[in-house]
Design brief:
Blueprint (H helix, E strand, L loop, with lengths): L2 H19 L13 H7 L13 H13 L2 H5 L22 H10 L1 H6 L24 H14 L4
The structure holds heme C.
Heme C (HEC) binds next to helix 4, helix 5 and helix 7.
């Protein structure tokens, strides 16, 4: 590819990115917070998925699940390598939006400090690290949860 072509491809890509990042949001985007701000600002049990789930959202969640390295421990297909499966019918701490969002944002140790406790359904391989810093965009975290629900037998 010559330099001219490469440049125009890069420009086209830039325009596409601009269009994507400026696309109007499909829901009322009231006062966005980072993932960790949201966790801190919301009372126990009150976190709820605000985005409407579509096949596109689930697809984006699947890409993020790989990109944010969830697959390194839970497996590309979610069956778990040395960590719990996210596709079987058991949830370690609970399968509601609030518990899953907090677990992934804070990690299992900090989740436990907040008064959430694990059941005894799955083998503990160790703590789950928190991803609140790595996934600052709370919408991205809801997309990952949407993807996990789409492949989980527990929903
Ligand atoms: C370093 C390994 C590791 C990484 C990376 C990791 N996890 Fe985990 N995850 C764990 C462990 C260990 C547990 C179980 C914690 C426990 O039982 O206390 C767990 C538990 C979970 C659970 C609960 C599973 C169930 O059956 O209830 C979910 C959901 C989850 N992780 C999602 C994610 C997501 C999403 C990511 C990426 C953003 C991720 N994990 C990255 C190790 C990891």
């Amino acid at each position: 590819m010559n330099r001219r072509l490469t440049t125009s491809a890069a420009v086209a890509c830039g325009i596409a990115m601009f269009a994507l990042t400026n696309a109007p949001s499909s829901h009322a985007d009231d006062a966005k917070m980072t993932t960790l701000e949201r966790v801190k600002a919301t009372a126990k049990g009150e976190l709820k998925n605000p985005i409407s789930i579509s096949p596109e959202i689930i697809d984006e969640g699947k890409t993020l699940y790989q990109q944010k390295t969830c697959s390194a421990c839970h497996g590309a297909d979610g069956r778990g390598i040395h960590c719990p499966s996210v596709v079987n019918d058991a949830w370690v701490y609970g399968g509601d939006d609030d518990t899953l969002f907090r677990l992934i944002a804070l990690g299992s140790e900090d989740l436990g400090k907040g008064g959430y406790s694990r059941g005894d359904k799955e083998i503990i391989a160790g703590p789950m690290p928190g991803f609140g810093e790595a996934i600052q965009d709370e919408t991205d975290l809801w997309k990952i949860i949407a993807y996990i629900r789409s492949v989980s037998a527990a929903k």
